[in-house]
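Researcher: I've got a protein sequence and the SMILES for zinc ion. Could you write out the 3D structure of the bound complex as structure tokens? I'd like something to compare against our soaking experiments later this week.
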Amino acid sequence: MKVDIVFHGFPGRMTRGYMSWSSVVYLEVNDCKIVFDTGGMVERSEVPKRFKDRGISLNEIDIVVLSHFHYDHAMNFDFFPNARILLHEAEINWVLSDPDDWPIPKYLFPALEKTGRLEAVSKDIEIAPGVKTLHSPGHTPGCMSLVLSSNTMPTTVLAGDAVKNLNELATGEVAMSWDNEASAETIRRIREIAKVVIPGHDRVLEVAEDKIVAATSVRETIIVPAGVADLDKPRLIELVVEPTCQLIKK
Ligand SMILES: [Zn+2]
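Model: Sure. Here is the predicted complex with zinc ion in place.
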């Protein structure tokens, strides 16, 4: 199984709103090509480019899994013209109930239905060898994670916003949840299953006996064009979150 993080999630907010920089993960199992979440508007120009750089045609993607229907995870499904698009049934029903939830643009679901390729997932299923869906409610009613099992890697959960960051995985306490108790229960379950968690908005996390470890850093760069701040060259503003860990709160 090949697991390739196309975009690393980044934890953070800005004074002008949520950064909403979420994880996008590419999976390849045998001949099956899967994309887990499609990013938001900020990533729009980079999505086709990053797949092209990897030598992967967007036409070849077989399955797009949307962890939930917030704009920063589900915006770019239209780049994958041949993919089945999986969304949990509970999320579909919730979106159709017209919830008062600002991260869901009202025009987005009709566009998804119009593709004719939306498939509701009603129970946990294996979508490819070693790739199972996991209903992970809390953040939204129909959050769906993926559990990856293979003898060449530790059990890995692609969590989406069921786990947004290190703090949420360690404490079970979450921000922006439709149901805090459901979120806490989902997080307990993910900690039991996973050795590695790729969260919605943070570094790759490792689950140890008593702590969660973020062993890598995550960095992004804001580029101010040449001639604006510095005369001859772009000014680069580096955003870095260093490796760290946190004890699990039982
Ligand atoms: Zn979300």
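Model: Residues 68, 70, 103, 139, 161 surround zinc ion (CB under 6 Å). Helices lie at 46-53, 71-74, 89-96, 108-114, 166-171, 180-193.
Researcher: Great, I'll pass this along to the crystallography team.
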